Amino acid sequence: MYEGLLHAHSGLRWIVLVLIVWALFKAVTGWTGKKDYQKSDRLAALLALIFTHIQLLIGLVLYFISPKVSFQSGVMESQVLRFYTVEHMSMMIIAIALITIGFSTAKRMSDSVAKHKRIAIMYGIGLLVIIASIPWPFRGLGAGWF
């Protein structure tokens, strides 16, 4: 079960990143071009939101069954254990909260440019936090590209 969820979580990361970039692109072009907020803009933002939440749910399950997560003393002394136990989870929750707040607050706005701006800013910050928190292979944290 662990291996299957880990592969799903790792592979889904690419879909999540593409969806966030797509939503961010649509929001930035809508904001800078002062365009109306279309159904396709909402769809892009909504799909990014949904897939980040699915990714979070898989990540939460992995958090409690992963051998890379430890609740013993000395966790902070190991770079790998500290990353997976504390840093990765907390930063991803922050990023997903930013994306959720961005979508939810934009949904209530009536001005199209303000909606685009809110999504662009919140999804952009969320994306930066996600990119910084992914265990990329070059970081030496024991994770692969998929």
From TrEMBL:
Which keywords has UniProt assigned to this entry? Membrane, Transmembrane, Transmembrane helix
Transmembrane stretches, start-end: 12-31, 43-65, 85-106, 118-138
Listed name of the protein = Cytochrome B
Organism name: Gracilimonas sediminicola
